[in-house]
Amino acid sequence: MTKQQGKILVVDDDEIILLTAKMFLEQYFSEVNTLNIPKNIPDELDKQTYDVVLLDMNFRQGETSGKEGMKWLKEIISISPETSVLLMTAYGEVNLAVEAMKEGAADFIVKPWQNERLLATVQTALKLSDQQKQVRHLKSQQKILSSSADHQAGDIIGRSKAIKEAFTIINKVAKTDADVLILGENGTGKEVAARAIHRQSNRADQVFISVDLGSISETLFESELFGHKKGAFTDAKEDRTGRFEAASGGTLFLDEIGNLSLALQAKLLTVLQNRKIIKVGSNHPVEVDVRVICATNSNLYNMVSEGSFREDLLYRINTVECTIPPLRNRIEDIPLLTDHFLEIYCKKYNKSKLYLPEGVIKRLQKYSWPGNIRELQHAIERAVIMSDGNELQSRDFSFPGDSPKEEQVFDNYNLENLEAWAIKNAIKKHNGNISHAAKELGLSRGAMYRRMEKYGI
């Protein structure tokens, strides 16, 4: 018998119920896992996305109110909205069933169940989960395809307040010929913003030339940017057109302008003021009609104060200033961005049916993304390459740049040493809040203080 694709999680404090459900459902579904401690549900859903969760309504001996089940129902829906939740109870009160359905439960199962009824209910819930995923995917694709200024400027995608502010500046400045300074951390998309300005400008049908000033040596700066004449120096075997002249009529993007030495800043300032270049080995100025967009991840204002960046050059290049926010400040844009990159890499690697569940997206939103959008893009590409099924899971992302968790090494595993270490780190984690630290350790405040006194903490 071919098993149906579907991930099922059964949560109950009764080991017999867990064993019985697992043995029966494993005959029909590709993966069935069990959990006997409800407080571990968030961690389990963080590890992987489930299609259906069978959840007991009462986890305490003699408890029949269903309050704990309702609490965990809401928690599951919050973490993974596309997961269908089936509530299980030995007490089939209609009012509990109605309340559970109002809170988002897919259905209600009374214990002890009939196997045929259980199978039919899980299969229906699985179909519902698939439909919810398809609806969300279609909605996200509609957002991606939207070309309105609220969601997109050129290839910049987003709807957060922070990125909309950048959109406003880009859309206003693009139609002018004003020089623009784009600020932002590495990987935020400064060149993408520069290209968006160019594409909306009156120079859109002309060239866009990008120069990474950080990669050009001081000795080759003038030759690269202004050009040279044949014989101007040893390796000048023919005339060379510089980047300014090549970009004439269009846009020149000077990235990492904060890396220039003061001497090179002076030479660049002269060209920007006069809009004329003099090739190395020539005395004849050449006029250039070029719009200049500069970018940097440096704080140029601090550099001016320190004397490492010319103030007159700063005010020459920043007629209009635009800051591209880091990804950690626009986490609401992550679903749009992930869908955008997923579409690109699914086509590239011929994996057209891949999908990012809501729970995984929430995990991505919790990560700080020190490498910003560039890091997110590479993470999605890697996950697509390494994926096995139709869904990308949290484990498919290695999150490079995450700080490794500190690992404590003990000379011996004496319980008192371990307890003292746990108490110290719990207090540190909760910034000195003894109540919160005690709660995490499962201690009362009194017991916590007694142990602190015992270990001299």
From TrEMBL:
Q: Which domain of life is it from?
A: Bacteria
- Please report the stretch or stretches of sequence annotated as the Response regulatory domain: 7-126
Query: Has UniProt tagged this entry with the keyword Zinc?
Result: no
4-aspartylphosphate-modified residues are where? D56
A Gene Ontology biological process noted in the UniProt record is: phosphorelay signal transduction system
Q: Tell me the InterPro entries matching this sequence.
A: AAA+_ATPase (IPR003593), AAA_lid_NorR (IPR058031), CheY-like_superfamily (IPR011006), Homeodomain-like_sf (IPR009057), HTH_Fis (IPR002197), P-loop_NTPase (IPR027417), Sig_transdc_resp-reg_receiver (IPR001789), Sigma_54_int (IPR002078)
Q: Which GO terms describe its molecular function?
A: ATP binding; sequence-specific DNA binding
**Positions of the Sigma-54 factor interaction domain:** 156-385
Which residues belong to the signal peptide in this entry? none
> Which keywords does the record carry?
ATP-binding, DNA-binding, Nucleotide-binding, Phosphoprotein, Transcription, Transcription regulation
Return the CDD domains for the record: AAA (cd00009)
Query: Which Gene3D superfamilies does the record match to this protein?
Result: 1.10.8.60, 3.40.50.2300, Homeodomain-like, P-loop containing nucleotide triphosphate hydrolases
Q: What SUPFAM superfamilies has UniProt attached to this entry?
A: CheY-like (SSF52172), Homeodomain-like (SSF46689), P-loop containing nucleoside triphosphate hydrolases (SSF52540)
- Output the PANTHER family linked to this UniProt entry: ALGINATE BIOSYNTHESIS TRANSCRIPTIONAL REGULATORY PROTEIN ALGB, TRANSCRIPTIONAL REGULATORY PROTEIN
Question: Which protein is depicted?
Answer: Sigma-54-dependent Fis family transcriptional regulator
